[in-house]
């Protein structure tokens, strides 16, 4: 019989993957999840048949091990293959994204095209001459797209979504996430740009993961926020907000790294607490909206960088999976994404205030706010770990301290490591953490440190 008794904080992709990996090795963990549902940021809340995917989760990976887990959890008929079609709404035009060279030259008028081309050539030349190891997002963007196209497509969007001046953000995530302009074979590429999606949204996969872990003996407690993480005599005790405690030989934590440091007892040294205090997040409010009228929007999602609306991106759920809406629904089903911080006015807005903001945005976008039939508001407080210049050094201080003083406390996942991860990265860091728990020489902190664009060399089901 196993004498191991690991505790897991969080039942998102990282926590559930850790649970599955432990169960596979004959160990039954206990999981504590703060919210009332599994899936974390990739959950899919459902009300009367309306499902809301908080972020529009594409499933893609370069990892065979991740793909094996996805395949094992949901049979092939529960996945849909979705052609990616996205656009940026600029000056009333839907400009295809990833950006296509020949469309940039003509779609916004020949003058704008010529200006874009000139500033691209100049931006590239300047970038080559001045490149620095740690460049801001603004420098990176101008070097990659030139001042004109950077200004049209990225400056406003990054300001709206990251809530920061692009010159204050580092660019280390940009190469991974933003695809360069395509000058050749754009249509061939678009035809191949397909991703996977569970029929009922990403939460379907994570609900299946929770069921599989429970079948293997894992015990999951929902509505169980962990308030304190106490080290004692080589073991660990976690204390929930309601005062209940549980003890074990290791803790796998996907709670935000900053919160973990705050919850640690005995308290870490001041410099570690200062490093944790420097880590910040952006929040996201996703409003699922059912409109009685159908809108022919030939995209999965549309970026809305302009200042005339507060919404930053619009998901067109019907194009992700028709099963995100109730059967026989013929109207539109959209997800409006609002980026904020937990100190921001949007975060403080009541449901009624949020509804008014949404209705105004729909009106400005010409989408007949009068026909709103249903609205569902989903708030995610820790949606994005912020990448400011302090992040890397702060994370390193905490990581090195935990490695040295608490090797059996294992941070993992997106907020757990304060890293801009997708689901597959969160899973890989959880898998690495479990492997390390069993004495294997892997470094979960090494996941997702490859700065190349992430969607090349993808594996398909
Ligand atoms: C807008 C948006 C779009 C995205 N698009 C994609 C995409 O297209 N493809 C993709 O693969 N990924 C995408 N992602 C990323 C994906 O959602 C994350 O990588 C993934 O959910 C991270 O998993 P995680 O388990 O590390 O963290 P989370 O999903 O954040 O889960 C952590 C869990 O821990 C719980 N928790 C926190 N604190 C405590 C506590 N004190 N006690 C107990 N429980 C606690 C939380 O409630 C949560 O359930 C997107 C994310 C966002 C925000």
Automatic annotation (TrEMBL):
<dbReference type="InterPro" id="IPR002937">
    <property type="entry name" value="Amino_oxidase"/>
</dbReference>
<dbReference type="GO" id="GO:0008767">
    <property type="term" value="F:UDP-galactopyranose mutase activity"/>
</dbReference>
<protein>
    <recommendedName>
        <fullName>Amine oxidase domain-containing protein</fullName>
    </recommendedName>
</protein>
<dbReference type="Pfam" id="PF01593">
    <property type="entry name" value="Amino_oxidase"/>
</dbReference>
<dbReference type="GO" id="GO:0005829">
    <property type="term" value="C:cytosol"/>
</dbReference>
<dbReference type="GO" id="GO:0050660">
    <property type="term" value="F:flavin adenine dinucleotide binding"/>
</dbReference>
<feature type="domain" description="Amine oxidase">
    <location>
        <begin position="14"/>
        <end position="368"/>
    </location>
</feature>
<dbReference type="GO" id="GO:0016491">
    <property type="term" value="F:oxidoreductase activity"/>
</dbReference>
<dbReference type="InterPro" id="IPR036188">
    <property type="entry name" value="FAD/NAD-bd_sf"/>
</dbReference>
């Amino acid at each position: 019989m196993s004498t191991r008794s690991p505790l897991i904080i969080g039942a998102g992709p990282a926590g559930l993957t850790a649970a599955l990996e432990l169960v596979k090795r004959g160990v039954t963990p206990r999981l504590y999840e703060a919210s009332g549902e599994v899936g974390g940021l990739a959950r899919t809340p459902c009300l009367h048949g309306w499902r809301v995917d908080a972020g529009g989760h594409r499933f893609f990976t370069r990892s065979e091990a991740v793909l094996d887990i996805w395949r094992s959890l949901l049979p092939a008929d529960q996945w849909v293959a979705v052609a990616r079609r996205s656009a940026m709404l600029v000056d009333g035009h839907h400009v295809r994204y990833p950006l296509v060279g020949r469309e940039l030259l003509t779609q916004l008028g020949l003058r704008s095209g010529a200006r874009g081309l000139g500033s691209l050539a100049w931006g590239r030349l300047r970038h080559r001459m001045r490149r620095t190891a740690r460049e801001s997002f603004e420098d990176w963007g101008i070097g990659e797209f030139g001042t004109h196209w950077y200004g049209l497509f990225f400056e406003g969007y990054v300001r709206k979504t990251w809530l920061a001046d692009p010159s204050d953000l580092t660019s280390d995530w940009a190469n991974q996430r933003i695809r360069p302009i395509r000058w050749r074979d754009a249509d061939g590429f678009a035809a191949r740009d397909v991703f996977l999606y569970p029929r009922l949204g990403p939460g379907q996969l994570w609900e299946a993961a929770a069921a599989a872990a429970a079948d293997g003996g894992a015990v999951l407690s929902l509505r169980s926020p962990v308030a304190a993480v106490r080290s004692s005599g080589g073991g660990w005790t976690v204390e929930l907000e309601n005062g209940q405690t549980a003890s074990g030989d290791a803790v796998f934590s996907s709670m935000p790294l900053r919160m973990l440091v705050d919850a640690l007892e005995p308290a870490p040294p001041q410099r570690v607490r200062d490093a944790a205090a420097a880590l910040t997040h952006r929040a996201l409010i996703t409003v699922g909206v059912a409109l009685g009228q159908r809108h022919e929007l030939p995209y999965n999602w549309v970026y809305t960088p302009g200042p005339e609306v507060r919404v930053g991106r619009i998901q067109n759920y019907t194009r992700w999976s028709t099963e995100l809406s109730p059967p026989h629904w013929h109207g539109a089903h959209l997800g409006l994404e609002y980026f904020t911080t937990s100190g921001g006015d949007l975060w403080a807005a009541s449901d009624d205030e949020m509804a008014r903001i949404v209705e105004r945005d729909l009106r400005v976008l010409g989408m007949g706010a009068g026909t709103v039939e249903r609205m569902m508001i989903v708030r995610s407080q820790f949606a994005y770990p912020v990448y400011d210049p302090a992040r890397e050094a702060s994370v390193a201080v905490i990581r090195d301290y935990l490695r040295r003083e608490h090797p059996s406390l294992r941070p993992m996942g997106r907020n757990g490591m304060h890293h801009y991860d997708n689901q597959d990265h969160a899973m890989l860091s959880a898998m690495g953490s479990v492997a390390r728990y069993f004495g294997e020489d892997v470094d979960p902190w090494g996941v997702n440190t490859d700065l190349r664009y992430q969607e090349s060399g993808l594996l398909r089901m």
